[in-house]
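To the team - adenosine monophosphate complex, inputs and output below.
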Amino acid sequence: MRMLMMGPQGVGKGTQAKMLAARCAIPHISTGDVFRANVSAGTELGKQIESLINAGELVPDALTDRIVADRLAQPDCANGWILDGYPRTIEQVRALDAVLEQSDQRIDVVLELRADYDELIKRIHERAQIEGRADDNPEAVAKRLQTYDKETAPLLDIYRDRGFVVAVDSEDVIEDTQASIVKHLQQCGLPGVKI
Ligand code: AMP
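Output:
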């Protein structure tokens, strides 16, 4: 199963995607995790993107697209994957389309997670205290939510037009949201969705 996990910062994409990926025995690929790992390891890429990430800005498309294309070409992606946090711009949608077309693959489903703005802010604040992410400061959070609304949320219309968005409310506790995701996916009737 090839899935995109979409939704604003703090909605629980990473948590839910990890659980779902384990359940389906497919890799969970988070561009945010890849970038953070590079920053922590002090790689060339990490040095290039650190200030952008900390300010809540997007990493340039070309760089991000290359990382995702390389990752999807790895053998463990042959039976499916969950992409979390990508695509975030219209250019990234086009780049992903091109990569998938070249390898004769298709997106089976786009899972949209939803929660109220106040709930997102509360969760990001809690995460900041637990994980200490450099980009969970108030300015970067505001910037990231604004960029999501402006650049990323409209991408859902593209996928809705293609007919494979499943929207799930993510305001419950983690396990209940996961159960709701599984139920929605089981009932969606989309070909290629195996859960
Ligand atoms: P996330 O963990 O998904 O919230 O991502 C953390 C940060 O990594 C974002 O605020 C961006 O700076 C960068 N990032 C992650 N995914 C992307 C992407 N698809 N395009 C551009 N930048 C990204």
